[in-house]
Amino acid sequence: QVQLVESGGGLVQPGGSLRLSCAASGFTFSSYTMRWYRQAPQKEREMVAGISGSGSKRNYGDSVKGRFSISRDNAKNTVYLQMNSLKPEDTDVYYCNAPGFDSWGQGTQVTISS
Strands 10-12 and 108-112: what pairing? Predict the structure, then answer.
């Protein structure tokens, strides 16, 4: 059974940083691309960042390029999202997902406000 548990969200002032974590279980983690998404109420889910199983390939949404960085630790079955230079428009619930699995965690709330 695939489980994804996101953590690390919080309230941060504009310009600040946060590091999100997603602990995965129930599948061979290192074999799968992992992605971070975000979604606010009444809005479509937006892909934020993706990383290949080995970690050698990464891609980012246009709105976060140069500010966010995705990484993974396959020994810990965990994917991370380092978020820098945060803006109010980054406020959302952030989720991780492995393409191919229709399984989502509870998400972690990120709020950027002064």
Answer: parallel
